[in-house]
Amino acid sequence: MALLALAVAPAALAASGSPRLEAFFQSELKSADYQQKVYSRVAGKWRQPGPKGSPALGRKTVVQAVIGRDGKLVSATVSAESGSKTWDAAALAAVKKAAPFPPLPESYTLSTLDAHFHVSWVAGP
């Protein structure tokens, strides 16, 4: 898995925030096309909660998902909370609603794929 480090502007400089979705996949998955398809499906299902549902600037939710060979979602759980239960629920719902995903590529030989979806509240555009 790739590690994520966010650089966020100080809260005093941020007039508002915006959501950022990032996806990280098991290193054995080499298909950038498959990664983009999964990312796009989740991004298309993301629904931002109202202003009171946003976490503090710089906070994020991490949803860990396991995708089966047939593209079915085996499991999805919130592994890191943002401090906003509404935001966390919205991130988990986006992953669940995006399923099923395309079947795993033939070049990927494992029976399941681990994917992490980071939904952050960041400063600026």
Please tell me about this protein's structure:
- This protein has 125 residues and is α+β, with helices and mostly antiparallel strands.
- The chain has one domain: 2-Layer Sandwich (Fusion Protein Consisting Of Minor Coat Protein, Glycine Rich Linker, Tola, And A His Tag, Chain: A, Domain 2).
- It has helices at residues 32-45, 85-98; strands at residues 17-25, 60-68, 73-80, 112-123.
- It has a 4-stranded antiparallel sheet, with helices on one face.
- The radius of gyration is 15 Å and the shape is elongated.
- The chain starts with 16 loop residues before the first strand and ends with a strand.
- Residues 1-15 have low confidence and may be disordered.
Low-confidence stretches: 1-15
Task: Describe the main β-sheet briefly.
Answer: 4 strands, antiparallel
How many helix segments? 2
Helix content range: 10-25%
What percentage of amino acids are in beta strands?
25-35%
Strand line-up across the major sheet: 1-4-2-3
Oligomeric composition of the shown chains: single chain
Mean pLDDT: 88
Principal-axis shape: elongated
Please give the radius of gyration in angstroms.
Answer: 15 Å
Could you tell me the number of beta strands? Answer: 4
**Which architecture would the CATH scheme give at its second level?**
2-Layer Sandwich
Could you give the topology of this structure?
Layout (H helix, E strand, L loop, with lengths): L16 E9 L6 H14 L14 E9 L4 E8 L4 H14 L13 E12 L2
Antiparallel strand pairs: 1-4, 2-3, 2-4
Tags for this model:
125 residues, alpha+beta, Fusion Protein Consisting Of Minor Coat Protein, Glycine Rich Linker, Tola, And A His Tag, Chain: A, Domain 2, 4-stranded antiparallel sheet, 2 helices
